[in-house]
Design a protein that fits this description.
With 337 residues, the chain is an alpha/beta fold. The chain has 2 domains: 4-127 and 320-333, 3-Layer(aba) Sandwich (Rossmann fold); 131-315, Dihydrodipicolinate Reductase, domain 2 (2-Layer Sandwich). 30% of the residues lie in helices and 24% in strands. The strands form 4 sheets. Strands 5-2-1-6-7-8 form a 6-stranded parallel β-sheet, with helices on both faces. A 6-stranded mixed β-sheet has the order 12-9-13-16-15-14. The longest helix is centred in the middle third of the chain and has 17 residues, at 129-145. It is globular, with a radius of gyration of 20 Å. It binds NADP nicotinamide-adenine-dinucleotide phosphate. NADP nicotinamide-adenine-dinucleotide phosphate is lined by residues 9-16, 37-38, 41, 58, 72-75, 77, 95-96, 129, 159-160, 162-164, 315-316, 319-320.
Length: 337
């Protein structure tokens, strides 16, 4: 195909701007690009391949003639405009949680379940950022040794809450240094020099929705409907890149060196695991990278068949924009428009 006509809805946000960068870097075949955002912000200029693109207010009329529409907006906007884009003939790749658990919407991480893309009926969902990062790291272990149970604690960067989260941490640090009072608008509490074990609303048995996404979405992506997943999600004062402590109980015993070997051959994974030389994944160094970094790989000393690992990856890139563009690459490659 000569190139796809692309729309990015939410192009001025953290994920939307990153989608533009990733499309450009990966030389995605773009024939025409329209950038849409909140109508109140129309007129903003964004750069793509050296050209200035003027942002237009999002609305159904703007989506006619589009082949692929990336949605990088809140769920309410996706729910309203996504089906309109499909009716206008586009394939929608949506970053919100609006469609992720719907039976007729594939939820895809190309390193894990690329074959699910072909089941789409117009909408393909990009999973939650922490879930994408986790499944890229645990699927190779599952394929090598089976999985009985997953225990995960996340350490999530402030930019997971969009550009407003990023700005709030920077502003609070400035206020602290200047001796001015700190105010919180995006997070429930001060996030500078703090941790908040609370992301999104509480949904069931005192687990947050952010935590339950790790349960529901992991099962759907890996086609393991009964996989036990025990999650804790924590917001940390890191600007960008989520980290995760993951404990796996496997069906068959895997030594730490076997796990390291399996992971070093896995797609999208980089093993950084030389703790005696102070080498392990850290969010500052995984920011702006597309891969999922895995280290601290060790056998669980409390059970016979268990592996512990520490994972870090840029949640705006692999956790959102890069994964979305990889899905679009499968759509174009397999003629699924
Ligand atoms: N940040 C992450 O790490 C991350 C990771 C995975 C998934 N996600 C998901 O990706 C989506 C976007 O998140 P984000 O972090 O990029 O948020 P963000 O930085 O707050 O950006 C939101 C975008 O939505 C636009 N918008 C707001 N109201 C709109 C409307 N009525 N019509 C059209 N556009 C509208 C905003 O436009 P203006 O700038 O013009 O207001 C902005 O471009 C969310 O569903 C989020 O849950 C985020």
């Amino acid at each position: 195909m000569a190139g796809a006509r692309i729309a990015v809805v939410g192009a001025t946000g953290a994920v939307g701007q990153e989608i533009l960068r990733v499309l450009e870097e990966r030389e995605f075949p773009v024939n025409n690009l329209i950038c849409l955002a909140d109508p109140r912000e129309a007129g903003t200029r964004l750069s793509f391949k050296g050209e200035q693109i003027v942002v237009e207010g999002a609305g159904p009329d703007k989506l006619k003639g589009v082949d692929i529409a990336f949605f990088a907006v809140g769920g309410e906007v996706s729910e309203k405009l996504g089906p309109e884009a499909v009716r206008a003939g586009a394939v929608v790749i949506d970053n919100s949680s609006a469609f992720r658990l719907k039976d007729d919407v594939p939820l895809v991480v190309p390193e894990v379940n690329p074959e699910d893309v072909k089941e789409h009926r117009g909408i393909i969902a990009n999973p939650n950022c922490s879930t994408i990062i986790m499944v890229v790291a645990i699927n190779p272990i599952y394929l090598a040794a089976g999985l009985k149970r997953v225990v995960v604690s996340t350490y999530q960067a402030v930019s997971g809450a969009g550009k407003a989260g990023f700005e709030e941490l920077e502003e609070q640090v400035r206020c602290y240094v200047d001796g001015r009072p700190l105010t919180s608008r995006v997070f429930q509490h001060q996030i500078a020099f703090n941790l908040i074990p609370h992301i999104d609303v509480w949904v069931e048995k005192d687990y947050s929705r952010e935590e339950m996404k790790l349960v529901w979405e992991t099962r759907k992506i890996m086609h393991l409907n009964n996989l036990p997943v025990s999650p804790t999600a924590v917001r940390v004062p890191v600007l960008r890149s989520h980290s995760e402590s993951i404990n796996l109980e496997t069906e068959r015993r895997l030594t730490a060196s076997e796990a390291r070997e399996v992971l070093s051959r896995a797609p999208g994974v980089v093993v950084v695991d030389n703790p005696h030389n102070n080498e392990y994944p850290m969010p500052w160094f995984t920011a702006n990278r597309d891969e999922v970094f895995v280290g601290r790989i060790r056998e669980d000393i409390s059970i016979d068949q268990g592996i512990n690992m520490w994972v870090a990856a840029d949640q705006i890139r692999k956790g959102a924009a890069t994964n979305a563009v990889q899905i679009a690459e499968v759509v174009v490659r397999d003629n699924l428009l």
